[in-house]
Design goal:
single chain; 426 residues; alpha+beta; Rossmann fold; Phosphatase 2c, domain 1; 2 domains; six-stranded antiparallel beta sheet; 10 helices; 19 strands
Length: 426
C-alpha cells in the first residue's frame, strides 16, 4: 500500500478465540507489511494494513484493532507519535501496542513506554518471538478487559446506588417537612402567657416532638417526648404518639376525659403516662421506648401538675432571675410493664417562665467532649434572661452552636418555653 492511499483490509477465514483477533500493521515499507501480514494471517488473525501513522489513526477510528504492530521510524508521523495519539482515542476495549524498532538503548525503550507502548520487538522480526509476544499480550488484554468489565459493572452498581440514595434523600426531605408539620404552631399567645416551641432534628428526621393542646377552658396541656434512636423508625413512632396527644381530635387524646357535663378536662398526668406505657407495650411491635414530660397548666392560677418519665428536668426561671430545675426523674415509657409513674406540682407566678427541653440540649458536647449539663443550662438561661419567646429559643440554638463548635448537633434538640404573665382576663 502506498502512502496516501486508503487503508486496505485483509481478513483470514480462520476464527480466533483469544482476546486478540484483529491486528493493525503499520509500516511505510510494503515488503515489511506483507511479511508480517502473511504470518499473522496464518495464525488466524484479521489483519489491517496502513502505510503511515495518519492512515493508521484514520482506520482505528472506524474499526479499533486489538493489537497494533507499528514501525518506530516512519516519515511524517513516527511510531512513537502514533502510539501517543492512538492512546488519546477513546475506546471501550484495550488495544495492545507493540513497537518495531532497531533501537535497543534503555532511554529509547523508556520513551516508548512513556508514550503508551506495551512491548517492543527488534527488527528484523523473528516470527517465533512475535508469536510469543502476542500470546503474552493476549493474557494482559484479557486481564485488562476483565477488569474493565468489572469496573463497568461496579460503575453501574454505583450509579444505581446513587439513584437509590437520591430517592431516599428526597423522601427524607419530604419526611422532614411532614415531621416538622406535626408542630403546627411554633407560637401561641394565651390570655395568661406566651407559648413558644422549637424542634430541630440532628438528621433529616428524628425522635423528638413537642406540642400543646387545649384541655378544657381552664387548662392547657404541654408535652415533650424523645423516642430512642434516630431516623425513620423513631420519626414514625413520634408521628403515632402525636396522634395520642392530638389537639385537633380531643376525643382521641389519651390525656383528656369528659366530665359529667360532657366537657373535656385533663386526666392526672401520671395516669396518662401509665396508659401510654401499656399502649406501647401491648399494641406497638417496636423496640423503641421514649422519655416524656407531660404537664397541665391551670391558666387562672399558674398551677402546674407534671409527670416526668425519664425526660430532663424542666427549668423554671423566676421573675427575679433565679433558676430552679425541678422534677422526679422517672422511668422511660415503653420499657417495662407495671412501672409506677409519679406527678409533682409547681406554681408559676407573674413574670415566671418554664423551659421544657430534650436531652439534646443538656447533653450537647463541647469540643473537649464535656457536655453542657444542668449547670451550663442555668448559666445560659441567666445570660439570656432578657430574651423572650421565639427569640429566646433562637438564641438558645445559637449559644449551643457556639458551645458545640458546629451547627450539626449529635442529637435532636427540642424545647417548649411557657412565659406566664398572670391573669389578665379569662
Amino acid at each position: 500500500m502506498s502512502a496516501g492511499s486508503s487503508p486496505s483490509l485483509k481478513r483470514s477465514n480462520a476464527p480466533r478465540r483469544g482476546a486478540i483477533k484483529s491486528v493493525l500493521v503499520v509500516d511505510d515499507s510494503k515488503l515489511q507489511r506483507k511479511i508480517l501480514t502473511l504470518a499473522l494471517k496464518r495464525w488466524g488473525f484479521d489483519v489491517f494494513e496502513a502505510a503511515s501513522g495518519q492512515e493508521a489513526l484514520d482506520l482505528a477510528t472506524v474499526q479499533r484493532p486489538d493489537l497494533v504492530l507499528s514501525d518506530w521510524m516512519m516519515p511524517g508521523m513516527s511510531g512513537l507519535e502514533l502510539c501517543q495519539r492512538f492512546r488519546e482515542i477513546d475506546g471501550e476495549e484495550y488495544c495492545y501496542f507493540i513497537l518495531l524498532t532497531s533501537k535497543s538503548e534503555k532511554e529509547e525503550v523508556a520513551r516508548g513506554l512513556d508514550s503508551g507502548a506495551d512491548d517492543f520487538l527488534t527488527k528484523p522480526v523473528d516470527n517465533n518471538e512475535l508469536r510469543a509476544r502476542i500470546t503474552a499480550g493476549e493474557r494482559l488484554v484479557e486481564m485488562q478487559r476483565s477488569m474493565a468489565q468489572a469496573n463497568r459493572a461496579l460503575s453501574d452498581t454505583l450509579a444505581e446506588l446513587q439513584q437509590l440514595y437520591d430517592n431516599i434523600d428526597s423522601d427524607l426531605k419530604e419526611a422532614k417537612k411532614l415531621q416538622q408539620s406535626l408542630v403546627r404552631e411554633r407560637f401561641r399567645a394565651l390570655p395568661v402567657g406566651d407559648l413558644s416551641l422549637m424542634l430541630r432534628s440532628s438528621g433529616h428526621v428524628g425522635g423528638d416532638l413537642v406540642g400543646f393542646f387545649e384541655a378544657g377552658i381552664r387548662h392547657v396541656g404541654l408535652y415533650a417526648l424523645d423516642v430512642s434512636g434516630h431516623g425513620i423508625s423513631s420519626a414514625l413512632m413520634t408521628a403515632r404518639l402525636a396522634g395520642y396527644l392530638s389537639s385537633a381530635a380531643p376525643d382521641q387524646n389519651v390525656a383528656l376525659r369528659k366530665n359529667s357535663r360532657g366537657q373535656f378536662v385533663p386526666r392526672p398526668p401520671d395516669e396518662v403516662v401509665a396508659a401510654l406505657n401499656d399502649l406501647v407495650l401491648d399494641e406497638m411491635e417496636t423496640e423503641h421506648y421514649f422519655t416524656l414530660l407531660l404537664a397541665f397548666v391551670e391558666l387562672e392560677t399558674g398551677q402546674m401538675v407534671v409527670s416526668q418519665a425519664g425526660h430532663p428536668h424542666p427549668a423554671v426561671q423566676r421573675a427575679d432571675g433565679r433558676i430552679e430545675q425541678l422534677g422526679t426523674g422517672g422511668f422511660p415509657v415503653g420499657l417495662l410493664s407495671g412501672v409506677g409513674f409519679e406527678r409533682f406540682e409547681l406554681k408559676l407566678e407573674r413574670g415566671d417562665r418554664i423551659l421544657i427541653l430534650s436531652d439534646g440540649v443538656t447533653e450537647c458536647p463541647g469540643p473537649d467532649g464535656d457536655m453542657l449539663g444542668e449547670e451550663g443550662l442555668t448559666a445560659l438561661m441567666q445570660d439570656l434572661a432578657v430574651m423572650r419567646g421565639p427569640a429566646f429559643l433562637e438564641a438558645l440554638i445559637w449559644r449551643l452552636t457556639e458551645f458545640n463548635g458546629s451547627e450539626d448537633f449529635p442529637d435532636d434538640v427540642s424545647a417548649i418555653l411557657f412565659e406566664y404573665h398572670g391573669l389578665e382576663a379569662i
